[in-house]
Amino acid sequence: MKDDHARFQLYAQECQRHLQLLQRNIERLAPHLPLTAETVATLVETDEGLWILDQIAYRYLKLQDTLGKLVRAFFALKGEAVERMTMIDLINLAEKLGYPVDEALWMRLRALRNEITHEYPGSHGEVAEAVNKLVQFLPTLQALLVKLQQAA
After folding, report:
1. Contacts from 44-48 at CB under 8 Å and sequence distance 24+?
2. Contact call for residues 18 and 70 (beta carbons, < 8 A)
3. Which of 4, 15, 24, 85 is surrounded by the fewest CB atoms within 10 Å?
4. What residues contact 96, with CB distance under 8 A and at least 6 apart?
5. Cα–chain center distance at 8
6. What are phi and psi of 49, to 5 degrees?
7. Is 28 helix (H, G, I), strand (E, B) or coil?
8. Helix, strand, coil percentages, rounded to 5, for the chain
9. Domain total for the chain?
10. What gap in Å lies between CA 127 and CA 72, rounded to an integer?
11. Residue span of the structural domain in which 141 resides
12. What are the CA-CA distances from residue 92 to residues 7, 71, 103 (Å)?
């Protein structure tokens, strides 16, 4: 039980750090939001702009991965037998217990993960759309993290 709590705290801290850095980098893009294909094309021409977009993609990947680990650790902490549960099973359990996540949202977050990492030439519109979606999802991700931490 003590190990479960330590694992949960570690993942919660990691999620919080990724979320903070993600928000900070999105704030740096604030003058350009919502992004357009043209804005992304301009941003990737500069080292700083490319770095910000890379950081957003990286931090979102890390946040989404760690959030999955956090949900699993949360239910282990609560005594659930999570070893054989799929991520969707865990998300469905979280929804049933009133946490701000459901299967449809989780699948959208997974799809966004794939969208935000595409770096094909001429894909500036897709990158813009993915970052704009991420901006919309941030409050939901923050709410889920807070709710899990409060209930742990």
Report:
1. 44/124
2. no
3. 24
4. none
5. 17
6. -60, -45
7. helix
8. 80, 0, 20
9. 1
10. 30
11. 2-151
12. 22, 11, 6
Sequence letter at residue 74? F
Question: Tokens 């700083």 — which residue?
Answer: 48
Closest Cα partner for 72 from 5, 8, 151, 1? 8
121 Cβ contact list (under 8 Å, min separation 6): none
Report CA-CA distances (Å) from 148 to 22, 59, 65, 138: 19, 20, 16, 16
Quote the radius of gyration of the chain (alpha carbons, Å): 17
Produce one character per residue of 139-150: b if its CB has 16 or more CB atoms within 10 Å, e if not.
Answer: eebeebbebbbe
DSSP SS3 for 46: coil
Interatomic CA distance for residues 18 and 15, integer angstroms:
5
Q: 78-120 pLDDT, tens per residue? A: 999 999 999 999 999 999 999 989 999 999 999 999 888 876 6
| Separation between Cα atoms, residue 99 and residue 144, nearest integer Å | 7
- Residues 103 and 92 sit within 8 Å (Cβ to Cβ): yes
Residue 108 neighbours by CB under 8 Å, 6+ apart: 137
Q: What is the pLDDT of residues 2-54, one digit of tens each?
A: 798 999 999 999 999 999 999 999 999 999 999 999 999 999 999 999 999 99
